[in-house]
Amino acid sequence: MTVTEQQHQEDLQRLRGLRPIDDDFMRCLFKDNIPLAEFVLRIITDKQDLIITDCETQKDMKRLAGARSICLDAYGTDSTGKKYDLEVQRQDKGADPHRARYHSSVMDIENLHSGQEFKELPDTYIIFIIEKDFYGQGKAGYPIERINLATGKSFEDGEHILYVNGEYRGESDMGKLMHDFNCTQADDMNFELMAERTRYLKENPKGVQEMCKVMEDMRNESLKEAAKRMLADGMLTLEKIAEYAGLPLDEVKKLNAERTA
Predict the structure, then answer these.
(1) Cα distance from N-terminal residue to C-terminal residue, the chain
(2) Positive or negative, the Cα torsion across 25, 30, 32, 33?
(3) Which domain holds residue 239?
(4) DSSP code for 121
(5) What is the C-alpha separation between 23 and 73, in angstroms, rounded?
(6) Using 50, 70 and 90 to split pLDDT, how confident is the model at 2?
(7) What is the pLDDT of residues 143-160, one digit of tens each?
(8) How many domains does the chain have?
(9) How much of the chain exceeds pLDDT 70, in percent?
(10) For the residues 127-155, what does the mean pLDDT come to?
(11) Contacts of residue 59, Cβ cutoff 8 Å, sequence gap at least 6
(12) Is the pLDDT of residue 49 over 60?
């Protein structure tokens, strides 16, 4: 068995254990599936009349030159123009409040064009689904809103942040949804839309191919990040970095050129 064949078999084995709350799986979960994105957002936001008109996965946002870019797991727009960033985070460090603040600010920059008034900024919703109970209070979700401390009233700036407790269970739709986000098997899920998409990605040959490609891409991204860290250290030759990172030398040279540009 070649290295490539062995890696493919390892990916297939890993795919069996993936859940919607895992980054690899999340990358494909909402792709070309507005009905599922709409269904999930209706439950999380408790807006049963929410209509999603557009949804992108792995949306790159970098309008300001030199600023740190972000890649949104799922970026949606509703029928009233409101914007939704749905993120899954396995670890608490990925849900740092400063990250939520940055996501919100980048979405603002992305959605206000030259010549527009500030009041034309759309409402934005930054939603983090965290595997563990980030605030440890046993709540299904933790909405974060700005308030005027002097008056005690909402600041009404249109920015909304919500932390969803991935550990939450119960008979409510939110409890059932979080159960589904932690399932590896479609047959164990409560909601058919979640189960249907999971079956496609794990059992349909085309879906399995999509997932294997995503896992390969994520593996390559990790190798590139490792190479970038070694380039920043400046302690190794490009040849050694290519060897240690498992990347072609030309790829390392390209990364180095981008870093020093």
Answers:
(1) 41
(2) positive
(3) 218-260
(4) P
(5) 8
(6) low
(7) 999 999 999 999 999 999
(8) 2
(9) 96
(10) 96
(11) 71, 72, 74, 75
(12) yes
List the structure tokens of 261.
Answer: 């540009």
Q: Is pLDDT of 3 > 60?
A: no
Mean pLDDT (the chain) is: 90
| Burial grade of 204 (CB within 10 A; 0-12, 13-18, 19 or more) | exposed
In the listed set 203, 230, 247, which residue is the last one of a domain according to the structure? 203
Q: Are residues 131 and 164 in the same domain?
A: yes
Tokens 């030398």 appear where? 249
- One-letter amino acid for residue 80 of the chain: T
Confidence of residue 137 (pLDDT cuts 50, 70, 90): very high
Assess whether 159 and 227 both reside in one domain: no
* Residue written as token pair 């998409």: 197
Q: Closest Cα partner for 40 from 125, 145, 98? A: 125
The three-class DSSP label of residue 120 is helix
Residue from 67, 115, 59, 114 nearest 83 by CA: 59
Tokens (6 digits) for 78: 């509703």
In angstroms, rounded to a whole number, what is the distance separating the alpha carbons of residues 17 and 5?
19
Helix residue spans in the chain (DSSP H): 3-17, 23-29, 34-45, 97-110, 173-181, 192-203, 205-233, 238-245, 249-260
Find out whether 41 and 76 touch, Cβ atoms under 8 Å: yes
